[in-house]
TrEMBL record:
UniProt keyword terms in alphabetical order: 2Fe-2S, Iron, Iron-sulfur, Metal-binding
Cofactor: [2Fe-2S] cluster
Protein's GO biological process: P450-containing electron transport chain
Name of the protein in its database record: Ferredoxin, 2Fe-2S
Length: 107
């Protein structure tokens, strides 16, 4: 188990306990914690409804694949800290990372 943090627009952070051994992606974890993520493409990196911003620890994440980069390129507010949560598998390297949900701000 690792802990990650989700920061809201007020700067408040909620700690989430995340299993690293169950094969879930971060989008599925966030949905399990009842965050309002549509995930209309089912985690195929096509819809960007699971867009997140990495606030702390970006350097510990794996590089984005071409599909994720192509999808992020379609978003007006994507930047170098943007990722799709469906493309991230929780690992020990992610312990303590801080994210903000961006898809909700785009809706």
């Amino acid at each position: 188990m690792i802990n990650i943090f989700i920061e809201n627009d007020l700067g408040e952070r909620q700690a989430l306990e995340v299993p690293t051994d169950m094969g879930f992606n971060l989008m599925e974890i966030l949905k399990a914690y009842e965050y309002d993520i549509q995930a209309t493409c089912g985690g195929m990196a096509l819809c960007a409804t699971c867009h997140i911003e990495v606030l702390e620890g970006k350097e510990r994440l794996p590089e984005s694949n071409d599909q994720e980069l192509d999808t992020l390129d379609t978003l007006p507010n994507a930047d170098s800290n943007s990722r799709l949560s469906c493309q991230l598998r929780p690992s020990d390297e992610m312990d303590g990372l801080v994210f903000r949900l961006k898809a909700l701000q785009e809706a």
